[in-house]
Structures are given as C-alpha cells and as structure tokens.
Inverse folding.
C-alpha cells in the first residue's frame, strides 16, 4: 500500500489552498493535493474583484457594517471584523507577489462600486481578478518548492479518536489508491454549485470536500443559504460579473423599464445579490421578462472604450457564447446558482470541531457571509482565512505525533473495496441521469423562492435518489482517467449535501438573505437569528442550532 507522510496536507489548489500552503510551509513539511492542476481551480474564473478598505475615506468598520447588513445579520461579527481588518494587508501582499491590479490615473489600485457596499472598495484586475490572483499565488508556491500532488481526488478522511490523521486519495490518471498521513489536514476544496442545474460554477465544484468532512464527523453549517447570482448569461449561465453593474450597467425588463427602482429605490442595480436575484426572478415569473425567461443587462451607454478597458472578458463571453456585442446590444441575463454560503463549520483560524481538520475558503463556513455574501468578499475570505488556517496548522503540528498507521491502512482498504465494488456492480442506474435528476429537483424546489410543500417533496425525492444510488452501474470499468468513476464517487457526496440543504431549508421557517420562504416571508430574529448545524448520521442528518456572534451591529431592518 502506498502511504505518503507529511506534516500538513492541504487539499485544494484554489486561492484558499495555495495561501494556506504558502503559510504552513514556512514552518513545516507541507504538501498540496488537488484533483485538477491548481490553475484550473474555480478561483481562476473570478471576475469582478476583491474588497478592501484602502482609501482614507473608507474604513474597515464601514466594510464590516456593509458585510453584516449584507449577511442579513447572520454573519458572526467577530469573524467579519477580522476579515475586514486584514483585507488591506492581504491586497498589498498580493500586489507585492505580482498581481497586476487595474490602476487609477494617479497609479493607485483602482476600486469599483459593488453590490451592497456604501463605498467603492472592490479592487480589480479588469474583469479577470481571479485569474491574476491565482497565477501570482501559484508562482509563490512554485518559488517555495511546495510539493503538489496533481490529479489526486481525496476520497475520505481517516479518523482516530475524534482526530483527523490524514486522508485517502484516488489518483485519477492511474487508478491508484494511496494514503496521505498528516498531522493536520486543511480542506480548501471550494463550493458545491454543481448540485444545481443552472450554475456559474466550474463542473469540478461538486462539494466533495464538504461531503468527506461531513462523513468523518465534522458538522456542516448554514447549508440552506445558497447564493443565486442575478446576472448569468441566458443559455449557458456563464457569469456576467456584478462589476458590469458596478461600472454603470442597467437592468431592463421587456417594457424597457429599469425595474430595480421598484425593489431597491436607493441602490437599484447595486443592491445585494439576494435582492436583485429575487427581483429578476419576479419580473420573469410575472411575465415582464423576455421569451425563454430572461431580462436585459444594458451596457451600451458606457461606451466602447470603457467596456473594452474594464470589461473585456465580459464582452468576449457575450460574443463567444451569445453572439452579442455588448457595445451594440444588451446582454440577455437570468439568475443562476453562484456561491455556497454554507460549508464546514470552522473557527476564525480554520479549526473544525474534528481535531486536526481545518477548512478555509468557499468550503468553510466561518461564518463571514451569513445568509448572503457580498460580491468581492469571497476572494478576500480565501486569502485571509487561508493564511490563518495555514499558520495555525503549522503551529499545531509541532506538538503532535502522527496518528495510527493501522487506522489509515484500514481507511485505505475500505476505499479500495468501495471503488472495486462500484466498478464491478451491475445495476441499472446511470451517474449522468441521476445527477441531472438531482439538479432539476434542487433548481425547481430548493431555488430562489421556496415553500414547505416543494421543500418536503425535494427532500423525499433526494432521499429516493440516495436509495437508487445503490443500484448504480458504470460502463467504464477501467482504471485510467475513469471520470465516470470519479463522478460516481462525487455524486454520492452531492446527494448527501442536497439532502442537508433541503432539510435545513425546510426547517428554517423564516426568510433571511438568500433563503426566501414564500410561506414565511419575514425575517424572524426571535426564533431564527441562529446558525444551522448539520451532523452526519447513517439514517438522516441531525440538526442543531448555534447562536450568532454579535459585537457592535445589532440587527436592523435591511433597506437599500
Ligand atoms: C464565475 C465566478 C466568478 C466569481 N467572481 C468572484 C469575484 O469577482 N469576487 C469574489 O470575491 N468572488 C468571486 N467568486 C467566488 C470565488 O471565486 C470563490 O468563492 C473562490 O475563488 C473559492 O476559492 P477556493 O480556494 O475556496 O476554492 P476553488 O478555487 O474552487 O478551489 C477548490 C480546489 O479544491 C480542489 N478539490 C476539490 N475537491 C477535491 C478533492 N476531493 N480532492 C482533491 N482536490 C479537491 C480543486 O481541484 C481545486 O483546486 C466567483 C465565483 C465564480 C464561480
């Protein structure tokens, strides 16, 4: 049996994973595992920008207030304060690492307005911010010589006496299964957008890291809060960044009306995403959209020069995928799943309740986004909390011995058996068909607008799919680049996450942020100003609730 041994194992090559590895590697033997080449992580697709109060007219306190209000008061305020205080240092550091941010005429880092923010504090690199950040950070990881295990899918965690002692990996190119013994494991595995049909997320965003943490006993937090982005390209659901509205784009319905005036009088198109997404969905549902279900994002008045300078990627996406030049025509847009506010419950330094296991980035729930994330805060979260998790883990491993080899070997043996059984099974169900069914259920019944009957149906239907999963059959029985097998392993996790999302959404009988219940349309602080915690059990997820950390921003009505 192959067994790799290291101090710190970072799972994920996106911004959070790279930042964590960079930090941990300063003090101990650190390696990074990723199921794809790090530069193919979803972070590379981030467009609009990253928030930090850099200007002397702005402050981290204002950033924190906007974030807490944006979260519909569900974010933990101590964590938000830390996020916003650390932001300027992380941006300057990325600049020193070589990120090419867009500039003002005076040569300062340029900042654009973003949804839900009272101040233009979103730093950007045209509309390719993630691309610039990820490449700069990857270079630093190469520079430090951190070993990267590429195209290894981590399929389970090994646990000894409530402590994570490493993980089991499946090597996609060869089919080999191996153990990774580690004193600390940091999950930075990204979001789970592909549980939904219409999503801006990369196909690799399956939430597998959340699923394996959940099986291993680390609880998931606030999974009912799924962000829908208002403007995804009609037809493909590729993201059209909020930066397009930040630069001054209008949203128009079929009568040519700037309808956001009716939903958010002050901030209009730059209200937070939950509000704008609901507005679009309402316009479309009530017949004021265009045939097929979309509205228009009009950038024409910005002029060619500004569009080419600030939004070159968006123009190219519209040209390539819709045959539309935004300089001359409005872009057809509709809402789509975009971000996972929920994730592995973790502290400000990344620790999960399972000792030795950390989480950072989109897979974690610290929680700084609460019920609704503000645009530009997620890239920031990856850097701030990736660094802190790496730092803490490197300190922690100094005092720890490695866990039991026998337990890791047992975990390895179990995974090997499971994979063998999946390959040998002769059932009737196909991975692709079941995955599509799950996505349809989640999109139609656990979407932007939710209500009791549909949520109960969704839960039942997802549980039905979990039963049918046992009758899965793979056509590809090979060991080399068997993506059908990879998809099958990930589908099991996605079904479990879909069950948790549906159950948490069914139980939360109020509306808050992205979670909108048509049968309970008001926020209910008396009963629901609390986080949902979901623990795995073989029968059904076990839910409990946790209070929200409030420092200096008491809950208020949210008006934009
Ligand atoms: C189109 C788009 C645009 C966005 N634009 C912005 C923006 O402008 N501003 C902003 O703040 N946010 C934006 N976001 C959100 C933000 O980009 C993400 O939340 C953030 O980049 C996530 O980073 P991460 O490091 O947590 O995960 P990711 O970048 O998703 O990386 C996850 C990594 O984990 C690895 N992995 C996953 N599972 C396993 C496994 N089981 N075994 C091994 N490896 C595994 C993957 O290979 C990958 O390397 C955008 C998101 C999208 C989809």
């Amino acid at each position: 049996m192959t067994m790799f041994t290291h101090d710190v194992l970072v799972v994920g090559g996106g911004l959070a994973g790279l930042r964590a590895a960079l930090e941990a590697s300063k003090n101990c033997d650190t390696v990074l595992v990723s199921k794809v080449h790090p530069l193919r992580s979803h972070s590379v697709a981030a467009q609009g920008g990253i928030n930090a109060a850099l200007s002397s007219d702005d402050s981290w306190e204002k950033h924190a207030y906007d974030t807490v209000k944006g979260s519909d008061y569900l974010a933990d305020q101590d964590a938000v304060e830390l996020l916003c205080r650390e932001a300027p240092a992380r941006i300057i550091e990325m600049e020193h690492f070589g990120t090419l941010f867009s500039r003002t005429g005076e040569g300062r880092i340029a900042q654009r307005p973003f949804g839900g923010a009272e101040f233009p504090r979103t730093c950007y690199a045209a509309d390719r911010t993630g691309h610039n950040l990820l490449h700069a950070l990857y270079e630093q990881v190469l520079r430090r010589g951190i070993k990267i295990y590429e195209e290894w899918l981590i399929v389970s965690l090994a646990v000894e006496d409530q402590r994570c002692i490493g993980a089991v990996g499946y090597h996609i190119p060869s089919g080999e299964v191996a153990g990774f013994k580690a004193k600390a494991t940091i999950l930075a595995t990204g979001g789970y957008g592909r549980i939904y049909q219409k999503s801006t997320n990369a196909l690799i965003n399956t939430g597998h890291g959340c699923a394996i943490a959940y099986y291993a006993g680390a609880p998931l937090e606030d999974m009912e809060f799924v962000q829908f982005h208002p403007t995804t390209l009609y037809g493909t659901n590729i993201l059209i960044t909020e930066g397009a509205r930040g630069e001054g784009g209008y949203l128009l319905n079929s009568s040519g009306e700037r309808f956001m005036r009716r939903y958010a009088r002050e901030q209009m198109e730059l209200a937070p995403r939950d509000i704008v997404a609901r507005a679009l969905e309402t316009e479309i549902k009530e017949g004021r959209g265009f045939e097929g279900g979309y509205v228009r994002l009009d950038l024409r008045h910005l002029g060619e020069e500004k569009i080419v300078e600030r939004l070159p990627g968006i123009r190219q996406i519209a040209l390539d995928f819709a045959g539309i030049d935004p300089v001359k025509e409005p872009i057809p847009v509709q809402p789509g799943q975009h971000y996972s506010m929920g994730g592995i419950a973790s502290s400000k330094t990344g620790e999960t309740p399972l000792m030795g296991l950390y989480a950072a980035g989109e897979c974690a729930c610290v929680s700084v986004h609460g019920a609704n994330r503000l645009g530009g805060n997620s890239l920031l979260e990856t850097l701030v909390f990736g660094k802190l998790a790496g730092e803490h883990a490197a300190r922690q491993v100094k005092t720890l011995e490695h866990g039991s080899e026998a337990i890791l070997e047992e975990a390895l043996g179990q995974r090997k058996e499971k994979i063998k059984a999946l390959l040998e099974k002769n059932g009737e169900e196909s991975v692709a068909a079941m995955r599509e069914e799950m996505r349809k259920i989640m999109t139609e019944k656990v979407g932007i607008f939710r209500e009791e009957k549909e949520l109960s149906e969704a839960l039942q239907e997802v549980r039905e799919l979990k039963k049918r999963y046992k009758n899965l059959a793979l056509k590809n029985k090979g060991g080399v680049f068997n993506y059908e097998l990879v998809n099958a392993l990930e589908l099991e996790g996605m079904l479990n996450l879909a069950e948790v999302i549906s159950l948490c959404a069914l139980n939360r009988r109020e509306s808050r942020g992205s979670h909108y219940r048509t049968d309970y349309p008001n926020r209910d602080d008396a009963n629901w100003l609390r986080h949902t915690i979901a623990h795995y059990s073989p029968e059904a997820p076990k839910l409990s609730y946790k209070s929200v950390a409030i420092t200096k921003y008491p809950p208020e009505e949210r008006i934009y």
Q: What stands out?
A: DSSP finds 15 helices and 21 strands in the chain.
